[in-house]
Amino acid sequence: MLVFEAQDRGMAKMEDHCITPTKLELKVNAQVMLLKNQDGSRGGLVNGSLRIVLKFTRSAAQNGFVDNWPSFNTPSEKLPLVWFMMEDRGHHNMVIGREEWTMEMQAKDVVGACVQIPLCLT
Q1: Which of 13, 53, 71, 100 shows the greatest Cβ crowding within 10 Å of its Cβ?
Q2: How far apart are CA 14 and CA 51, in angstroms?
Q3: Are 114 and 90 in contact (CB under 8 A)?
Q4: Could you please report the per-residue DSSP string of the chain?
Q5: What is the pLDDT of residues 52-103, one digit of tens each?
Q6: Is residue 74 a contact partner of residue 22, using CB atoms and an 8 Å limit?
């Protein structure tokens, strides 16, 4: 089992405003739901996609996931490789790295941010 802690910054208490769990405990075969849309270069998966954790890997590059890789992840950090069933093209394996959510005021000033793996247990 691996534990992923959310990393907050800014003045706002993001725990109350971020969809991700503050503490995410994952293990192989855990059933998970994706909490943030992934762009086309990372599979085109959407918020709410369901599947299972296959394994944990230390490098996205080892698995061919280097395009648009967020800078929130370190090469030595183990990240979940998740198997997603796709309606139109079978299945898709994707390393899920840390993503950032921000909270902005009306003037578009960022008052807080949360960085976490965009998954939750189902």
Answers
A1: 53
A2: 27
A3: no
A4: -EEEE-EEEESS-GGGT-SS-SEEEE-TT-EEEE-S---GGGT---TT-EEEEEEEES-TGGGT--TT--TTS-TTS-EEEEEEEETTTEEEEEE---EEEEEE-TT--EEEEEEE-SEEE-
A5: 999 999 865 544 444 445 568 777 789 999 998 766 666 778 888 888 888 8
A6: no
